[in-house]
Structures are given as C-alpha cells and as structure tokens.
Amino acid sequence: MTPPTLAERRSELAIAGEPIPAVWEETVAACLAKDPSQRPQTAGEVAARLGLTVAGATVGASSRLDKRSLTTGAGRTKSRMSRVLLIGGIAGLALGVLIYSFWPRTGSASPMRRFDLSTQRPLPAFMPWENDPLVPMPIPTTTFSETKANAEKGDVNAQAYLGLMYDVGNGVPKDSAEAVEWYRKAARQGAVEAQYNLGLIYARGDGVPKDSAEAARWIHMAANQGAAYAQDRLGWMYERGEGVPKDKAEAAKWYRMAAEDQKAADAQFHLGVMFALGDGVPKDSAEAVKWYRMAADQGDGGAQINLGLMYYSGDGVPKDSAEAVKWYRKAADHGFDVAWVRIGVIFANGDGVPKDLPEASKWFRKAADHGNAGAQANLALMYERGDGVPKDEIEALAWYNLAAASGDDEAVKNRDSLELRLGRQRTLAAQQRSKAILKEIEAAKAR
Q1: Closest CA relative to residue 163, chosen from 123, 207, 132
Q2: Cα separation of 225 and 423, whole Å?
Q3: Which domains are present in the chain?
Q4: Tens of pLDDT, residues 358-415
Q5: How many CB atoms are closer than 10 A to CB 444?
Q6: In 243-304, beta strands by DSSP E
Q7: 404-413 contacts, C-beta under 8 A, 24 or more apart
C-alpha cells in the first residue's frame, strides 16, 4: 500500500498549519520505501536530505563540516562523532513525530463499550397530541340530514356526533370550524366526549388557533365527569405545565384517579414512572413495580419495558434477569426497539441467562435496522471484536458512523480510533457501506 503524503494525512485529520516542505515529504517517503535499498542508510544521510544545520554548519550530501570546527587526532574524531550523533538524534526525533502524527496507527483496538443497563432510566410518559385519538361515539341510526336536524333542535347526542363527522370528514367534507361549533354546543350541555374532543382540537390547533389553556379547560370538564382518558391527559398536562400551572402532585392525583378507580393502563404506567423517579410523589420502587405490573398485564409496552428494567436491576423486586427478559420480550412483540436493545445486552453479558453472542447480535441488528443509535454502536463493537458475528472492521466502522451521526458519544470515540487504524482507503469503503445501510433502513421504513 502506498502511504498517503503528510499533507494528505494532515488534511484527513483536519490539522491546520504551515505547508509541509517538499523535502520533508520526500524524506519520509524515502524512509518508508518498500525496497530497503532505497531507504537512507544512516542518520547522517537523513539529516543531509533534510538539510539540517548544527552550530552554523550545514550538512550536505557529502557531510562536510565547517573547517573552523575541525581539530586533529582524537579531538577531531570526537567532535565529528558528537555532531553526527546530535544530527542523527534531531533527525530521528523529527521523523518519529511525523510518523506518529500522520501514519495510520496499528496499536490497540478502539475503547470498548461495556454492555450495561445499570444506568438506564425508566421510559418516560410520552403522549403527543397527534397520537391521541378522538373519543368515538355511538353511530346514530338516522341519516345525515335527520342527524343535523336533530342537532339543530338541541339533541346533545346528535350535536356531538355531528361534530365528530365534520372533524374526521365522515360522510361530509372535513370542516374543523363546523366540528368546533357542534362540539361546543354538545359540550355546553355536558357531553363528555364532545368536551374531550373539543379540548383536543384546541391542543392541536386544528382549524382554530392553538390554545393550551382552552384545551385544558374542556379536558378538565371531561375529567371531572370521570372520563379516564381525560383524567390521564389532564395529569399529563399538569406534569408538564401545558395549559395549566406545572404541578407534579396534581398530576399524580389525576393519574391515580384514572389508574385506581378505572384501571386505565396508560395512567397506571404514568403513575409508575412518577413513583420510580420520586417525581411529584415520594420515591417508592415497590409502588412503581405495582403500577407497572398492572399496566403491563394489560399489554402496555412502556410498562413492560420498565418492569423488565426493575427486575434487571433488582429495584423494588428481587433481581431476576430471566424475568426481565420475559417482560422485554413482551414489549419487543409490540415493536419497541428499546426492548430489543435490552434483550441484546442481557444475552451479550450472560447476565442471569446463558451468554449467547449470536443471539445478542440478532437483537442488536433488529434495533439497529430501526435506527436505534445504541444498538448500532453495540453491533459495531461486535463486528470489531468478532463477537457473535464474523470479525469485519469495515462493517464495524460503517455502523459506528451511523451511531455517531445520531450523537452516540462512545460511537464517536470508537469511530475515530478505528479510522486511524484502518487508513484512508478502508475508511472510505466503510463510509460507502454506511450509505448503503442507511438506504436499506429508509427503504424498510417506507414499506
């Protein structure tokens, strides 16, 4: 392999500075020549190529010294040997610095990521308004004309359903302004579904100016009537201070109403998170486990992941990695990439289950293909080591590139270290592989 020039290597590493003299480029290239006969044979020859000077004496091709410095006999020989040693030392030091700074290194492998879940935090509550469905209502047996006529006469159920029809464009053109008008009429008569749906419209700014306070007002009305979905959403609004003053204790109160009185899985999960973190309530791991389990038994994926973490860490329950895997697998069936990563970590470490690196790599790859940066970094490490997969440093660097692009700090360090060892051509090959993987990921998401 022809080594890159010093200028090329410095450019690759983004190192600024004065231009490197051509004589330095030529000298380093000569020292690294494949044919030993083409290399400088002595330190003096290296110094001569570099044109180094010592005590006013320029060392040329013939290694002549200034006559004024010459003496006779032993003194003359000693002086010459001292100069040669000094010149050789300077030349060797200069070359050592250059080669260390610019030539691809072949030292130890990248700093290794330790597969670890001990620092993982519970999944937080995540309730984007866009994912919050409208509350369905009984479908009337009347025609649209009859339903509208009944709504105009003040029939609250007809008003609420008419609002839903205009809201979603069911049987009529979608018209948010009409939806708001009919929801409002029904909501003022106490229709809980209309109150909640009207709150959603204001929270989203769908056809009306976005107004979190107005959203909270209508959702509060529905919550006061005992609607579990409204109580859970109102708790979320208090937890974040959206449309209402931020109040974690008030949030816990509304979550508990929905979780305890009406067994709402979402609210049970949210209440579990608050107890796990001591957020708005006293920290109580056993209480968190209780609420997670209630929600997990109802199929809530977030609760299943958090319950798995509690078993893995022995927090609020006896440590039991096999039980953790059981709950992670349940969440994995719901498509949670976080669960895939955690299963991979447990098999990679053999923590409470038989160590199985091929099985770990399978779960990491599954999550990595969905864009999970932690999984991508773990998979890269396995390719770099040859753990559970064939050793392939180009494939490893390709996955480090993707994880680093998503902000994984350890992937950045490992990528930089591996690039230095692989050199320019293999680094470029890994970059091309990263682009190909990214296209595969995007194509899979589009399907």
Answers
A1: 207
A2: 68
A3: 6-102 (no CATH), 352-447 (1.25.40.10)
A4: 999 999 999 999 999 999 999 999 999 999 999 999 999 999 999 999 989 899 999 9
A5: 11
A6: none
A7: 406/371, 406/373, 406/376, 407/373, 408/373, 408/374, 408/376, 408/377, 410/111, 410/113, 410/377, 411/373, 411/376, 411/377, 411/380, 413/110, 413/111
Q: What percentage of the chain's residues is helix, strand, coil (to nearest 5)?
A: 65, 0, 35
pTM for the predicted model, two decimal places: 0.68
Kindly report the length of the chain: 447
Give pLDDT tens digits for 229-249. 999 999 999 999 999 999 999
Is the pLDDT assigned to residue 188 strictly greater than 90?
Answer: yes
DSSP state of 18: S
pLDDT at 143 over 50: yes
Q: Encoding tokens for residue 349?
A: 């470490």
What is the per-residue DSSP string for 337-399? HHHHHHHHHHHHHTSSS---HHHHHHHHHHHHTTT-HHHHHHHHHHHHHTSSS---HHHHHHH
**In the structure encoding, which two tokens stand for residue 134, read together?**
């409208």
Residues 101-110 have pLDDT tens digits of 444 444 444 4
